[in-house]
Design brief:
Length: about 200
């Protein structure tokens, strides 16, 4: 592995019908939306494990004992960790804080960005290894698809209006306020809405 002192964290829900890709349910139905999410998770893990950049951890909801996560553990040889309770920011924050106890730097992603590339991950890990404080992967919808850091910066996750177009702007403001060195990756498109799905299908 090129970055043995780093960690790649995949924040993931179990693909239970009605619990994932809820904005796509009116278009696809609960079961097809869940199957799509499961495919996105598998595609992401396949890419990450094939690249073999650093150890990979899956941060699981609702529990590490869910059959889907057990199958991922067996197939991809990842470690499984339980997400905390709370909003998205609290769950990301605790995953990063916990992992930084044993790693020099972490990169956290979700499975919602099928346009994420190995080059994005490599660039993020390289930037952190060479001293950048924080790496951000901006998403077209005003959020971000990736965040990486060398130290835990809790302020980036507190009282944030998650799932709104303001997340990236507010995050960048907080980064500037704390004088942190930031590396920004290319803007990518998440897969959340029917419009996103149409773009995704046209490329597959």
């Amino acid at each position: 592995m090129k970055y043995p002192h780093g960690r790649l964290l995949l924040l993931s829900k179990a693909p239970d019908p009605g619990q994932v890709k809820t904005r796509l349910i009116p278009l696809l139905g609960e079961h097809a939306a869940a199957e799509l999410y499961a495919k996105l998770v598998h595609d992401c893990l396949t890419m990450c494990t094939t690249a073999a950049l650093c150890p990979i951890e899956i941060w699981c909801s609702p529990s590490t004992g869910h059959l889907f996560f057990q199958q991922c553990h067996d197939r991809y040889k990842t470690t499984l960790h339980a997400q905390s309770s709370g909003d998205l920011g609290q769950r990301m924050s605790l995953a990063i804080q916990t992992t930084l106890v044993q790693a020099d730097y972490v990169v956290l992603i979700g499975a919602d960005c099928p346009t994420l590339t190995v080059e994005d991950l490599t660039t993020a890990l390289d930037a952190l290894e060479t001293g950048t404080d924080v790496v951000l992967g901006p998403a077209e919808d005003g959020g971000y698809y990736l965040i990486g850091m060398r130290e835990h910066h809790a302020a980036l996750f507190e009282k944030m209006p998650w799932s709104t177009p303001d997340v990236l702007f507010l995050t960048e403001n907080r980064l500037q306020g704390h004088n942190l060195r930031v590396h920004k990756l290319p803007v990518r498109k998440d897969l959340d809405t029917p419009e996103d799905y149409a773009v995704y299908k046209s490329g597959n």
